[in-house]
From TrEMBL:
Main location: cytoplasm
Positions bound to sn-glycerol 3-phosphate: K109, G137, T139, K201, D254, S264, R265, N266
Binding site for substrate: K109, R265, N266
GO biological process: carbohydrate metabolic process; glycerol-3-phosphate biosynthetic process; glycerol-3-phosphate catabolic process; glycerophospholipid metabolic process; phospholipid biosynthetic process
Protein name from the UniProt record: Glycerol-3-phosphate dehydrogenase [NAD(P)+]
């Protein structure tokens, strides 16, 4: 049978709940593991998750629980949908309770601090021998949960489970499992390319948000999206991913979405910082998952290790991690030597107006 009948989801937040809803609407038997009793009770009794997806009616029958054994023991496939910094612990938890032949699909977007591992790299460490994949793409949870049309990329390496034919590999099976009238998966075997797109676009979205919040226009946003895509492509290729994956849903698709909407937490975080709101006052001081904040450092650490310069990601890092004033950081980025596009041509012309640029941008930006 191509599709998985029994799907377990780890994470009762916005994206975990939305994916559980997709699987349930596709007719699957779904169990969702959450940490909070109130979320479990509301999902079970009212088919709602008002903490994370207010006003959205979810399908009946999502089997929510706080008990890992209950959630995972019968799973044929496990979706891990918690923030990137918790993926190691969640993979260990899943490995301890799920059947050995159930593949894990990681739906978080990021790179691990210290190790520089992609999300499936962490899972490979934590759950050796497991078939692993990723779900990524332009997907605001609130839209997916409300059955607005959504397309995703589902990736795994084709050799991962020893399958020889594409329909037998785990990514294709998960695509068959999750397809509904409103949810349309595409399948990829370029796990690295897909995961790099998801991790880096959040950092670029922060940059776009900062400059939008500071009052700059659409020109610079288009420039950052385009040059950000070049940074994604270079990192993906240096790590063994494929150039063409970057033009797909998990690359340019997610980058466009996240860099141009206040529905994005990364963009909104940047916009608030651009308006001059202090780091500890962003989102009114509430804890909100902003993956690009931490991943500005993990992405640039990884790039530096490969002698790759990612100027937009470095700019974001210097603001959010090193506390550099926005005007100064942007001026330094903007006054870099003039180079070729793409970088194949060896051109480097000193910017003539570094000082003027700094003075002007410092006046305009906080
Ligand atoms: N929201 C979206 O539109 C999309 C999100 N993603 C990605 O999905 C991942 C999760 O994001 P999202 O669902 O939006 O985040 P949310 O903040 O909505 O939910 C996070 C969930 O993870 C749980 N959680 C948080 N920290 C830990 C931890 N240390 N250990 C175990 N569980 C934890 C939370 O539990 P509790 O409620 O108890 O705190 C909550 O259930 C991120 O990597 C994000 O980039 C990907 C695509 C779309
Ligand atoms: O990954 C996402 C959309 O694809 C969600 O973006 P944010 O985490 O910025 O809200």
């Amino acid at each position: 049978m191509l599709a998985y009948d029994r799907v377990a989801v780890i994470g009762g937040g916005a994206w975990g709940t939305a994916l559980a809803a997709v699987a349930r609407r596709a007719g699957r038997d779904v169990s969702l593991l959450a940490r909070r009793e109130d979320i479990v009770a509301e999902l079970r009794d009212e088919a709602r998750n008002s903490a994370y997806l207010p006003d959205i009616a979810l399908p009946e029958g999502i089997g929510a629980t706080t008990d890992p054994e209950e959630a995972l023991a019968d799973a044929q496939v496990v979706l891990i949908v918690t923030p990137s910094r918790s993926i190691r612990a969640m993979s260990e938890l899943a490995a301890a309770h799920a059947p050995a032949d159930a593949p894990f699909f990681i739906c978080a977007k990021g790179i691990e601090a210290g190790t520089g591992l992609l999300m499936t790299g962490i899972a490979a460490d934590a759950a050796p021998g497991r078939v692993l994949g990723a779900v990524s793409g332009p997907t605001f949870a609130v839209e997916t949960a409300a059955e607005h049309p959504t397309a995703v990329t589902i990736a795994c390496t084709s050799a991962a489970d020893g399958a020889t034919a594409m329909p037998d590999i785990a990514a294709a099976r998960l695509a068959a499992t999750l397809t509904t009238d409103s949810f349309r998966p595409y399948v990829s075997d370029d796990l690295i390319g897909v995961e790099i797109g998801g991790a880096v676009k959040n950092v670029i979205a922060i940059a776009c948000g900062i400059l939008a919040g500071a009052g700059f226009g659409e020109n610079v946003r288009a420039a950052l999206i385009t040059r950000g895509l070049a940074e994604i492509k270079e990192l993906a290729v240096v790590l063994g991913g494929r150039r063409e994956t970057v033009t797909g849903l998990s690359g340019i698709g997610d980058l466009m979405l996240t860099c141009s909407s206040t529905k994005s937490r990364n963009f909104s975080y940047g916009a608030q910082r651009g308006q001059g709101i202090a780091e500890d006052q962003v989102f009114g001081g509430k804890p909100v998952v902003v993956e690009g904040r931490e991943n500005a450092t993990t992405v640039t650490d990884l790039a530096r290790r490969h002698n790759l310069h990612m100027p937009i990601c470095e700019m974001v890092r210097s603001i959010v991690a090193d506390g550099q004033p926005i005007g100064e950081a942007f001026a330094a980025y903007w006054a870099a030597p003039i180079e070729a596009e793409p970088r194949a041509l060896d051109i480097s012309i000193a910017h003539p107006a570094e000082t003027e640029a700094q003075i002007r941008f410092e006046e305009l930006l906080p």
